[in-house]
Amino acid sequence: MNGIAAAFSATGLYYLGFAVFKLAADRMPAVRGNRIPHMVWTIVSNWVFLIALGIVLGGLGLQILALRNLPLSTAVPIFMSGIVPLLLIALVFFGERLTPREWLSLVLIGGAILLLTGSLRGTSRSARRTRRCGRSPRWSPRRCWCRC
Description:
By secondary structure, the chain is mainly alpha-helical. The chain contains 7 helices and no strands. It has helices spanning 3-27, 36-44, 47-69, 72-80, 83-93, 100-120, 125-128. Helix 1 packs parallel to helix 4 (72-80). The longest helix is centred in the N-terminal third of the chain and has 25 residues, at 3-27. The chain is flat and about 50 Å long. The two termini are 22 Å apart. The relative contact order is 0.13. Mean pLDDT is 79; it is low at 123-129.
């Protein structure tokens, strides 16, 4: 899987997993921190919670893959764009409504992402001088593990 697809998929899986966590929490009986064994059993025996945990861990794996294959100047704006699936999930599944002030903040965040992406595109010297293994010569040791 290429790094860009992994980054977008990781972001989407994170927020989908958090939404399923919320659904699991709504279906759980009340738990208290002073009854730890009961709380652990309630969480572990809830299959919806375990599905959400699997989704979030899948997102973590894809994020690690994306960070391994992409420079930070590309990965960070993609991860920041995660506000879009979060908003869609909140609006569609949970019936959230945004105020005009919140819509304005989203437009400003979107503009900031675009400006950040535009300012970092093609300006990284180390991104142009990467070795075959993908490591930057400035940060890697004299010999990298793949001996390229």
